[in-house]
Amino acid sequence: MTDLSAPSAPVTTTPADVRVAGATTTTDDVIATVAGLAARDVPGVHDLGTRTQRALGTVGQLVPGPSWAGPPGVQVQVGEREALVEVSVVTELGCNAPEVAAHVRRAVTTALRDLVGLEVTAVDVEISDVTEVAGVVDVADVAGLAGSGRAT
């Protein structure tokens, strides 16, 4: 019988130069989730998806059973080593939408390359909505329209 109170032997690992056969497969849902998390972390991104997608995602979380595929507002087309990503974002009022989109592209591309090993061929970003963050921005101040009532 083994004495469980005795210190255990050190764990040995396989040397780095020894290769072990096998395959790693990452599902499209995981790739979409990684892309969505990367996009959501970009400053100026308030949320992902259209209003309908966000509402359906909320309802889906209340229904027992398997989770819905990936985050709302993120779709991926995945090949063997490359991916095309479409992301729908809600930006915060006062943020430059083209700059936010550029940061989303960089963040998604970097995350998928570094975490999943995919080459990203394109990240299409749709600005699906804009929201005011409570107490942060006044619409008239952002547009420089105080008192004018309308953009020209």
Pick out the low-confidence regions: 142-152
- Give the CA-CA distance, first to last residue: 86 Å
Instruction: Count the E strands.
Output: 4
Sketch the topology as an H/E string, one letter per element: HEHEEHEH
Described by strand count, sense and barrel closure, the largest sheet is: 4 strands, mixed
**CA-based gyration radius:** 22 Å
The fraction of residues in strands falls at: 15-25%
Examine the coordinates and then state which fold CATH places here, giving the name of the CATH topology of the domain at 28-61 and 69-134: Alpha-Beta Plaits
CATH C-level class of the domain at 28-61 and 69-134 is Alpha Beta
Secondary-structure-based class equals alpha+beta
* CATH architecture label name of the domain at 28-61 and 69-134: 2-Layer Sandwich
Protein name: Putative alkaline shock family protein YloU
Pfam family, one: Asp23
InterPro entries: Asp23
Organism: Quadrisphaera granulorum
